[in-house]
């Protein structure tokens, strides 16, 4: 399961501090991982919009399982089969790729369809074409408050690199927990580390 970096960054920089728990419940996840509307509201309510948009670019590397974005490409609403902010050709390709995702849970797509292993500003160019895989990504371009930064980074890769480095430095040192009893640094964001209790 891919956890959008945007969500992780928000949890670290603008929401009440949460730590990597050694145990978790659905209620804890729901509180720690708010829905898209809440995410956008929290981004906009901070003074760090530009940094959050820059941090979202980390989605260039990696993939997301179909179940993470299936809502965008299947039965989106009574009016649309897929999310209208999604490029129609891209949506159709994802629908074909993920056709059996409920039985084959390993089905996944690259987060960046054009340059999945290169760290550059292609992510922002993709968003302008409706090629954002996750709804949290595409919302950065459809929301008028974050769109100017998508446009800036799509046009100016140097500005993106500078802002991303600055934002990552801030997030990396924010409220760091060092005591193992208070939590831990996960090796994989979607699973707990093995804990030897004997």
Structure, described:
With 198 residues, the protein is mostly helical. Helix content is 44%, strand content 3%. It has a two-stranded antiparallel sheet with strand order 1-2. Helix 4 crosses helix 10, helix 7 packs across helix 9 and helix 9 crosses helix 10. The N terminus is likely disordered.
Briefly summarize what is shown.
The protein is mainly α.
Contiguous runs where pLDDT drops below 50 for at least 5 residues: 1-20
Query: From N to C, what is the helix and strand string?
Result: HHHHEHHEHHHH
Helix content: 40-55%
User: Main beta sheet: strand number and arrangement?
Assistant: 2 strands, antiparallel
C-alpha Rg (nearest Å) = 17 Å
The side-by-side strand order for the widest beta sheet comes to 1-2
Structural class: mainly alpha
**Mean pLDDT over all positions:** 77
Tell me the total number of β-strands: 2
- Strand content is under 5%
Shape: globular
The count of helical stretches stands at 10
Query: How far from one another are the termini?
Result: 29 Å
